[in-house]
Description:
single chain; 7-stranded mixed β-sheet; alpha+beta; 43% strand
Amino acid sequence: xxxxRDTPVQAAxxxxxxxxxxxxxxxxxxxxxxxxxxxxxxKGKLKRGEDPLAGALREVEEExxxxxxxxxxxxxxHYLANGRPKQVHYWAAEVTTGCFIPSDExxxxxxxxxxxxxxxxxxxxxxxxxxxxxxxxxxxHDA
Length: 143
């Protein structure tokens, strides 16, 4: 089966988070892509035959320099990119180890509290993922 302009581009990413060292509250990692001059969650196109979760974790590592432990699956986001449908599978993912090194693809990352992350995100569709992440963290946080 060959891809056509109507076949959705398959991509995956994570809402990457960590606990603040001071307050213990979640902080969310956003990436800045100079090509688009935007702030978004780490994500990217899947390689042919690649499992979406594996692709999401690969993209996190490539874009942020950090490894992560996947958590809950978050809603899949659908939109048009360059006139072609795109669907991005997302997971919550807690950072474990790593170090950011700027690249041509991602030149900066920010760790922000959820409210600030929501304001910094360029696309409104990405803001909803912040709320979805927080909903998955609440049960453990309230326990």
